[in-house]
Design brief:
The protein has about 475 residues and is an alpha+beta fold. About 15% of the residues lie in helices and about 25% in strands.
C-alpha cells in the first residue's frame, strides 16, 4: 500500500476515534440529553438522547450524584446508528420530589463498556440540561443488555418497609389485586409482607384462583401472620367463585364466609363495618370512606343481579358528602369501568352489566378513588394504569396483579405524532408482580388565579391530596412509571 494512502487511512481512523470520544459535533459530548417537560412537577415530555456509538440508553431519576436507590429506570431507549434516541413520557406520572437530576446510562454494542452522565433538573422542571458529568467504565463479564443498563454508580441498598412510611401525615394504604392463590403461598406471603407497616390493606379481588374452601383457609392463614391491628378489606373477583358451583353441603369457607371473617377482624379493631344484604359494605378508616362492591357471581360472571349494591353505593356517597364533605371515598370493585379500563378500545364491551349506571354514580361525585383489578396490567405500560380528573378529583387505579403482569394492553398505539416514541425495549423487571402504596390526605384547596387553576404537582401530597407508587412484589423496587402525585 502506498505510504500516502496508509497515512490517509490512519488519519480517518483517528478521526473516527475522535468522533466517538467527543461526539459528531465539535465541543458536544458523546453522551448528551435534552428534554422538555410538559407540566412542572410532572414527568410527561420528550427526552432526546444523543449517544453516538452506543446501542441503547436508560434513564433514571437521580440525586447526590447517583440514581435514586431502589427505583427502577423510567425508560430504556434504543439508539439509532446516527446516535439519536427519543422517548415520550405520558400518563401524568410525577417526578419524585427527592430527584434533582436525570442519570443517563448508555451501553456499547459489545455490551462490555458503558458510560453514564448526570443532567440536572432545572428549576420548574421544564427545560434541558445545564451541566454535564460523565463516568466511564468497562464490564468485567458479559451479560444481557438490560443488566448493562443498570447504573453501577448507585450503591445497592435494601428497600425500606414502605415508600411512604417515613413521610409524615396522611392515611397510608397498601393495594393488591389478583393474588390467585392456589397451593403455593410463597409469593402471597412475600407480597403481604410489604403491607405490615401501613394503615390499611385493600384487596381488589381474585384473591384465590378457584373459589375453593381450602384456598380460602390458606389465605386466612397468610393474613393472620400480619399484625392484628392492620385493617384488611376486600372484594370478590371472578376467580373467587367456583367455575361450576355445587349446592353447599357444609360450612366450609367460601367468599361469603371469608368476608364475614374480615368483618369480625375489623370489629376486634374497633372499626364499624356497615354490611348491606346485597353483599356491598362500607367502613370508615381515618379520612377515607371505603366502599366494597362484590360484582362477581357464580360461573365467574361479572354481575350486579339487582340494583341494590348500586343504591347502597349511592346512599353511602351522599351520606358521606353531607356529614363530612371533604374526605376521600374509596370504591373497591374488581372489574374496571369501561371508560377507564387500561385495555379499552373503541366500541369495547364493558365487564359489568350495569357499567353505565355505576359510571353515572361515580361521575356525580367528587374526591372518589375507584380501585379495580382483573387486567393484570403492569404500571409500566406506556399509558399507565392511573387516570385522574382534576376538576372533580376523581382517580381511577387499576392495580394489576401480584402475579407476573402484562406489558401489552392491546390498546391502539400512541397518536400518529407520538408513534416513534412507543416503547421498544421492555425489561423483564417491568412485568414483575406489583403492589401499590397510597397516601391520602384531606384534599387541598385549589388556588385560583385570573388565568387558570393552579394544581399542585409532585411533592405536594403532604399538603393535601394523593401520592401513589407502584412497587415490585419481588424486590420492593419502586416504579417511576407507577408514581403519581395529585392534589
Amino acid at each position: 500500500m502506498p505510504r500516502e494512502n496508509r497515512n490517509n487511512d490512519i488519519s480517518r481512523f483517528r478521526a473516527a476515534l475522535q468522533e466517538l470520544e467527543n461526539g459528531s459535533e465539535e465541543g458536544v459530548p458523546m453522551l448528551n440529553l435534552t428534554f422538555t417537560l410538559d407540566t412542572p412537577g410532572f414527568a410527561d415530555g420528550v427526552y432526546r438522547v444523543r449517544a453516538k456509538g452506543f446501542l441503547a440508553a436508560a434513564l433514571w431519576w437521580a440525586a447526590a450524584g447517583k440514581a435514586l436507590a431502589d427505583w427502577s429506570a423510567f425508560a430504556y431507549i434504543p439508539v439509532a446508528p446516527s446516535g439519536d434516541g427519543v422517548f415520550r413520557f405520558r400518563g401524568r406520572r410525577a417526578v419524585p420530589p427527592e430527584a434533582t437530576h436525570i442519570l443517563v446510562r448508555a451501553v456499547c454494542p459489545d455490551l462490555q463498556r458503558w458510560e453514564e452522565a448526570l443532567f440536572p433538573l432545572p428549576e420548574g422542571w421544564s427545560g434541558s440540561q445545564a451541566a454535564y458529568f460523565r463516568l466511564q467504565s468497562a464490564f468485567p463479564d458479559p451479560q444481557d443488555a438490560f443488566s448493562r443498563l443498570q447504573p453501577v454508580s448507585s450503591d445497592p441498598q435494601p428497600a425500606p418497609p414502605g415508600l411512604l412510611n417515613s413521610r409524615e401525615g396522611g392515611l397510608r394504604l397498601c393495594v393488591m389485586s389478583d393474588l390467585h392463590l392456589t397451593k403455593d403461598t410463597g409469593r402471597i406471603r412475600r407480597a403481604l409482607g410489604w403491607a405490615a407497616e401501613v394503615d390499611g390493606l385493600l384487596l381488589a379481588g381474585d384473591l384465590v384462583n378457584d373459589g375453593l374452601p381450602g384456598q380460602y383457609r390458606l389465605l386466612q392463614q397468610c393474613l393472620e401472620e400480619l399484625p392484628g391491628s392492620l385493617p384488611v378489606f376486600a372484594v370478590n373477583g371472578n376467580h373467587d367463585m367456583p367455575q361450576k358451583p355445587l349446592p353447599c353441603i357444609s360450612q366450609e369457607t367460601d367468599y361469603t364466609a371469608f368476608q364475614a371473617w374480615l368483618e369480625q377482624r375489623a370489629a376486634r379493631q374497633g372499626i364499624e363495618w356497615r354490611q348491606d344484604e346485597s353483599g356491598a359494605y362500607s367502613v370508615r378508616l381515618g379520612p377515607a370512606e371505603i366502599i366494597g362492591l362484590n360484582a362477581a357471581g357464580h360461573w365467574r360472571k361479572f354481575l350486579f343481579p339487582e340494583e341494590r349494591q348500586l343504591r347502597f353505593l349511592e346512599e353511602c356517597l351522599q351520606k358521606e358528602e353531607a356529614e363530612r364533605g371533604r374526605g376521600w371515598r374509596v370504591i373497591l370493585c374488581h372489574a374496571p369501568l369501561l371508560a377507564h379500563n387500561p385495555q379499552r378500545k373503541p366500541g369495547g364491551t364493558p365487564y359489568l352489566n350495569r357499567d353505565r349506571e355505576l359510571q353515572r354514580i361515580v361521575d356525580g361525585q367528587e374526591r372518589v378513588i375507584f380501585i379495580s383489578g382483573h387486567t393484570h396490567f403492569s404500571p409500566n405500560v406506556p399509558e399507565g394504569c392511573v387516570e385522574y380528573e382534576p376538576e372533580a378529583r376523581r382517580l381511577y387505579l387499576n392495580a394489576g396483579s401480584v402475579r407476573p403482569t402484562e406489558m401489552g394492553t392491546g390498546r391502539p398505539r400512541a397518536a400518529a405524532g407520538d408513534s416513534a416514541y412507543d416503547d421498544v425495549l421492555l425489561p423483564g423487571e417491568w412485568a414483575s408482580g406489583v403492589f401499590w402504596e397510597l397516601r391520602l390526605n384531606r384534599p387541598a384547596e385549589r388556588k385560583r388565579t385570573a388565568a387558570k387553576e393552579d394544581w399542585p404537582g409532585a411533592g405536594q401530597a403532604a399538603a393535601g391530596g394523593l401520592e401513589i407508587c407502584a412497587r415490585s412484589v419481588h424486590t420492593g423496587r419502586r416504579y417511576p412509571r407507577g408514581y403519581y402525585c395529585f392534589s
